[in-house]
Structure formats: C-alpha cells, structure tokens
Design a protein that fits this description.
The structure is a homodimer of 129-residue chains.
Chain A lengths: L12 H14 L8 E2 L2 H8 L3 H13 L3 E3 L5 E3 L3 H4 L4 H18 L4 H13 L7
Antiparallel strand pairs in A: 1-3, 2-3
The first copy, chain A, binds a DNA duplex (30 and 30 nucleotides) through helix 3 and helix 6.
DNA sequence: ATATGTACCATTACAACACATGGTACATAT
DNA sequence: ATATGTACCATGTGTTGTAATGGTACATAT
C-alpha cells in the first residue's frame, strides 16, 4: 500500500488518506482482512499528526471500509470492496442539490438558505453528546 | 408607521426592518396601497445606510409584501396582509431540518454535511448572472 | 513494558461569509 | 432640477467552522 500525502493539495490531509485507502481497496492493493498500519505508525510514516490519521480511520470505519479491533489493530472490512464504492457523501450531495434547488425556485436567497442551514446545524435537538 | 431600529440588537438591521414592516401590516397600521417612505428618506429617518434599507425593501418585494413602482415610489402590496403571514424562511427551515435529520440518521458527520452543503451552494449550474 | 484504539484537554491558522458601510452612476419620470 | 429604484465599484468587521497541531490519559490485551 503506497500512500502519498500532498501538503500542497487543497484537499484536506485526512480526506486524501480516506480516498487513497478506498482506492487501494478497489484496485485490489488491499484485500478484506488485510491489516492496516496502526494510527501512530502511519502518522509517523506519512509525517502526519496521529489525530489526523485517527480522523481518517474513524470515517473509514463508519463507512465499514475498515474494522478496528481495539488493541489488535485495524483491518480491511470484509465488505470493504462494496462499501468503498458506496459514497455517503454523494448521496448527501444529491439530496442537498435537490433541496437547495427547490429553495432557490421558491425565491429564497442563497444568503437566506445559508443562514437557515446554519441554524439547523446548530440546533442540537434533545441532548446530544 | 413607527419603526424603531435597535443597533444593539443582534438581529441584523435589515431584518428588523423587514419584520417591523410586516408587523405594521398585520396590525393594520399599514394597509394595501399605502405608500412607503423612499429608500433614501427612510435611511435618513432611521439613521441607516440606504443600502441596508434597499436590502429590506428588496426582500419585502420578493415576498410580495410591498410593490415598487420605479420612480413613483414604493407601496404596500394588494395581498400584503396574506403574504406577510407566509414565512419563506420558516418553510426553508422546516425542509432543511428534515433533510439534515435524514443525513444524520444515515451516519453523516455534521462536518460532512456542511462540506456537502458548501459544495452545493457554490455550484452555479449553467450560467447564472 | 509495549502497543492498540479512543477520549478528553487545548491552540493556531485559515477561509468563507454576513452585515453594514461608502461612493458613483444610470434610466425613469415628475 | 429633483426624486424614484436599482446597479456597480469597493472596504472593514466580526463570526463561524474547518483543519491540523500538541499533550495527556484510559482500558484493553500481548
């Protein structure tokens, strides 16, 4: 697995890492069950902060692309191949695109939409940790 | 029509103005057809920048609460009473609240939702002025 | 001891955006 | 001339959120 992080790239570092892991899985360079470097080790290799790597791993696990087994390390998820194709963000984008289009059609200003969005995102419903 | 703008109020000035005009209409202090002060004049009276007043007027006209007749001035819209009840922002908020809730339920991070939103808002489809 | 993922404390830098301000200019019609 | 709404140029301020960094600590198990 060769991962290259470009500090100049406007794409966030953790995001580059997520993408490259998914790519490696789709290319077959990584297979289900394969072990991944530990957060700390990978941070050293890529000259990143461990937090940054941890963030990438957290997102990858949420998408069931990798699996963390506590002290045993991190491994490629059994369904990684399928799950690294499914793009949660794409689904979110599509939904949002439609919604925003409806707003604009209704005459709402981009500014108004942004403000409404900001309010919604800050509304912590009923006790979220 | 008595309008009072509070500079200390965290609510934006143009927004205070919009609200107060709508209120005046619902209270009957303003009736359909009534003339409104010119942008420049109202700016002087309220000690606001003309741009700020213009912004409020623009939004009010978009909601068909007032009507601008060019050089003839600005007047309360015939359907102002009904239209000042309809709250476009409330509708936008509701829709967005549902949409965002669905995203969160799907496991999306708030950060991801924000990023997706940012992308959607910056996508200027096909030649917008 | 050593290593795993994870959780908290925190700060810094940076970008995007809203709000409000100022000035100037235009076509419109009185 | 005077006034209307509107459009463009622009700047400054403050807020918000992201991204990335650092340090410390924990329970887990080898």
């Amino acid at each position: 697995m060769e991962i290259v992080i470009d500090i100049e790239d406007p794409v966030p570092l953790f995001s580059q890492l997520v993408t490259q892991v998914k790519d490696a899985i789709q290319n077959g360079k990584l297979s289900p069950g394969d072990p991944l470097p530990s957060i700390r080790q990978l941070a050293i290799d890529l000259e990143l902060n461990a937090k940054t790597v941890a963030k990438a791993y957290r997102l990858l696990e949420r998408d069931s692309v990798i699996q963390t087994r506590g002290y045993r390390g991190t491994f490629v998820h059994p369904d990684a191949r399928a799950n690294s194709t499914v793009d949660l963000n794409a689904w979110v984008m599509d939904k949002l695109t439609d919604t925003v289009a409806a707003f604009r059609e209704a005459g709402a200003t981009d500014s108004e939409i942004r403000i409404a969005f900001g309010k919604v995102m800050n509304e912590r419903i009923g006790g979220e940790r």
